[in-house]
Amino acid sequence: MKRKIIIFGILSFFLLGMLPARADKYGFVRKVVIDPGHGGKDPGAIGSKAKEKDIVLAISLQLGDYIKQNFDDVEVIYTRTTDEFIELHRRAQIANENKADLFISIHCNASRSNSAYGSETFVMGLHRSQQNLEVAKKENASILYESDYLETYDGYDPNSPESNIIFSMFQNIYLDQSLRVASLVQNQFRDRAGRHDRGVKQAGFLVLYNITMPGILVEAGFLSHAQEERYLMSERGQSHIASAIFRAFREYKQMQDAIAQQHLENINARAITHQVNDASEPTVVLNEESSIHFRVQFATTTVEKPLNTPEFKGLHGIRFYIHDGNYKYTVGNEKTLEDAVKIQKDLHEMGFSDAFVVAFKNDERIAPAEAIRLLNQNIQTP
Ligand SMILES: [Zn+2]
């Protein structure tokens, strides 16, 4: 029962601040939201001298400057430019309202062990280790500075294991793009800024939860590590970090813009063919509610696999869809999220520990939050 309440609660949080508009998967990168973590009464991690909120603001402003100096066609939006407290849900809202193409949240880490050091970049998803979960819990704990956090986040409690597990089940629909940006950032940290590379990781971050575009959360380094703290406090260190993220942004933009350009050309080519072949296609009115389904994705491969492959033994109703050139395998085709979650649990017990829920509208993959919003809309308007 308790679990049900939490599920329901977190789902309704989904709907808060949700906007129907989302970034175009094949869109150009024209708008970036830079989110310096913490601020005001929330200092974030604290080193022997440094406060996370100050360091991440300096890095963020510098990153924004690099982008503005180098790209006339990119608008930079900050969630804060001064030492002020901004609620976590508000940060995502700023990105959504502005229909940003990319969201970059910048943070610094701290650990009880003062030997931990290095940089890591997170995307929204299921944590594979306790350590990753701890980072998310620590960052999510910012909401404890918000006066009505239990209400705002519908009972989400950063210290409840159950809250965190349910919450991290949802992956951003832009997972592939987010992972791409994250690994570009880590490459730059390692190869150009000479940082210790702790890798690309996944965990459930409240700030990434509701965004409707690709997004990453950068942990630039550890303030609990004496040498790294000095580096992060230094002008040189801050500009290294900012320019590493900038170079990753530049690479991502070049890639993404090339894809967008190609997509645009394909659409134009198709539109011309369409005009020639069929001038009067009837308009199909679809019942939105019945067209929405939840499935559980359990495997991704680069080459197509027969559905009776031994690896998929014991699974029924397998189907696949192709996405970004990969084959993605799912089971289930449920009308409610709750039913999909049950299947996901079964899959976890069968050893498919990475299985997660994906939503489809007319067989096209959409964000689970979007699916829930559409279902809800349908119920409310008879
Ligand atoms: Zn932080």
Task: Write up what this structure looks like.
- This protein is α/β, with parallel strands linked by helices and 382 residues long.
- It folds into 2 domains: 253 residues, Zn-dependent exopeptidases (Aminopeptidase, 3-Layer(aba) Sandwich); 89 residues, Sporulation related repeat (Alpha-Beta Plaits, 2-Layer Sandwich).
- It is 43% helix and 19% strand.
- It is built from 12 helices and 11 strands.
- Strands 2-1-3-6-4-5 form a 6-stranded mixed sheet, sandwiched between helices. The protein has a 5-stranded antiparallel sheet with strand order 8-9-7-10-11, covered by helices on one side.
- Helix 1 packs across helix 6 and helix 9 crosses helix 10.
- The longest helix has 43 residues.
- The two termini are 29 Å apart.
- The N terminus is likely disordered.
- It binds zinc ion.
- Zinc ion (ZN) binds next to loops.
